[in-house]
Amino acid sequence: MQGAERARPPQSERRVSETDPEARIMKQSDGGYAPSHNLQLSTDAAQGVIVGVRVTPCEDDQGELAPSLEEVKRRNGKYPQQVVADGAYSTREDIVKAAKSGWISSGRRGRAEHPKG
């Protein structure tokens, strides 16, 4: 059958992964773009172990702080006593949620402490 075969766009015009439909086109460290996932790891620095893992389709880390903390609580039964994250990780909404949830800002950018007890 002629014409039954779907024409494939040139490599440079493809916008989705043909092998992983959940991957999103993201900028890479070499400046190029490729189908990717954004992996969020939460670790216990004192013990040197991973305590939370999330895979997101988001290109950057903005807005990932609160969901990552919820994942740590879901996996471990409690929130961490201390959080260190770079400034690009949290959004205003994350900070407001943290304040309403009992997290207390230590006054240092990207760092919050949870009250003990």
Topology:
Blueprint: E1 24-27, E2 33-36, E3 38-44, E4 49-56, H1 65-76, E5 82-84, H2 92-100, E6 104-105, E7 111-113
Antiparallel strand pairs: 1-2, 3-4, 5-7, 6-7
Question: How would you describe this structure to a colleague?
Answer:
The protein is α+β, with helices and mostly antiparallel strands and 117 residues long. The protein has a domain at 38-113. It has two helices and seven strands. Strands 5-7-6 form a three-stranded antiparallel β-sheet, with no helix packed on it. It has a two-stranded antiparallel sheet with strand order 1-2. Strands 3-4 form a two-stranded antiparallel sheet.
Shape: elongated
Assembly of the depicted chains = single chain
Which stretches are poorly predicted, pLDDT < 50 over at least 5 residues? 1-5, 104-112
SS elements, strand count: 7
- The Rg value, from CA coordinates, equals 19 Å
| Biggest sheet character | 3 strands, antiparallel
Strand order of the largest sheet: 5-7-6
Through-space gap between termini: 71 Å
Total DSSP helices? 2
- The H/E string reads EEEEHEHEE
Share of residues in strands: 25-35%
